[in-house]
Amino acid sequence: MLRAFLIRLIGNKKKKEFDIKKIHRILIPGGRVGDIIVKTPMLRVLSKLNNDVKIDISVEKGCESLVKYHPNINKILVSEKKPSKIKIIKMLMGIISALKIRKKYDLCFDFTRNPRFFHLLTMRVLGARYLVGCYRTEKFGIKKDELTLFDKYIDMSNQDHAVDINMNALKDFGVDISNRNYELYLGNLEEKYKNFFDKERINIIYNFLGSTPKRSLSEEDFNYFLKEIPKLDTKIVLYVLTIPSKYEEVKKLIEKLNKENIKILPKTESILEAAAILKYSDMLFSVDTGIVHVASVYNIPIVAIYTEDKSTLTIFAPKSKEHSIIVGKKEDFLREFDKNTVKNEILKMAKKVEKMKNEEESNI
Question: Greatest CA separation found in the chain?
């Protein structure tokens, strides 16, 4: 098969000895909000690899604020343009981006699994001294670990969370990979919202927007929970989080409701500022999106609605100690979930939050 021949041609190279002492420049693919958060333990560990190590991270435009103050990052590579919907143009843009940083790195990571020719060509053009990647999905007669373009393959199972996959990539690097806690550096936003919330109330942040319209709540569901959640407990105050482009629309809706316990959060300038607010909240109610992982940084209790995408449920599950996931009945569309179950889980979590707050107060 021609495709298999081309993949083998571009996906194989002469093997060389893996020498950690030669690793000084590292490139990590960050991506979007959740992708960045789950890689923060990896950043922390890699910063201790060598005394003069420098780590660059590639992120999507709009996410760069998340790593703006990170002490272990040398340079942030921002994808300035949205990827083209035309497949061949998207592929060519990837190769052009790789050419711009060709042979600049000693170590790069690749967490994709599909043995796509153009993706492998991009990795080859990048020309890193060492490339660590996931086992490929077996296609076209090519075995999962056949391609020698990868100097090391990552041990993983179908039950691994994204953070575990990332840390498993560092096995045999001579570093401690046991600490898998997320971290964010807020800079001058660290305590900006420290006194924003009423400590006598149960302050729930409500995020209804996912990465796509299909993974967001419908207008009907959004309005339903907006009105019903505050009825669950008189101590609840619901704060709606939204993006700048929808801010005025949501603000008018909330003003029209004119309820003391339904508010809109301040209009934020970046996702990092949203994180700074979330840090001091009591609880998050959200669809499956990056804000769930931001809440996990601060161990904020979470109730989240996910689609029936089994890989996402495993790889991108919340990491907060207290969390509950309600699963819809469609894999790529956030519909057909039980609203009563959602409300019950929110009430249960709110009661846990109230108990924890009372315990903290009694210990002061």
Answer: 70
The structural domains of the chain, with segments of one domain joined by +, span: 2-168, 195-363
Amino acid letter, 53: V
**Bridge partners (DSSP) listed for residue 238:** 204, 262
Strand boundaries in 208-354, DSSP class E: 236-241, 262-264, 283-287, 302-306, 323-327
What are the tokens at 332? 């790529």
Tell me which residue has tokens 């409500």: 206
For the question of whether the overall pTM of this predicted structure is more than 0.90, the answer is: yes
pLDDT, tens digit (0-9, with 9 covering 90-100), for 161-183: 999 999 999 998 989 999 999 99
In this structure, whether the domain defined by 195-363 belongs to CATH 1.10.10.10 is answered with no
Q: Is 217 exposed, middle or buried (0-12, 13-18, 19+ CB in 10 A)?
A: buried
Orientation of helix 219-228 relative to helix 247-257, angle to 10° = 40
CB-based contact 36:45 (threshold 8 Å): no
- Summarize pLDDT for 111-158 with one digit per residue, the tens: 999 999 999 999 999 999 999 999 999 988 999 999 999 999 998 888
Is the domain spanning 2-168 CATH 3.40.50.2000? The answer is yes
Q: Could you tell me which of 348, 323, 297, 343 has the C-alpha nearest to residue 37?
A: 297
User: Nearest to residue 120, comparing CAs of 4, 2, 7, 3?
Assistant: 7
Task: Write the single-letter amino acid at 271.
Answer: I
Q: Distance between CA 126 and CA 56 in Å, rounded?
A: 14
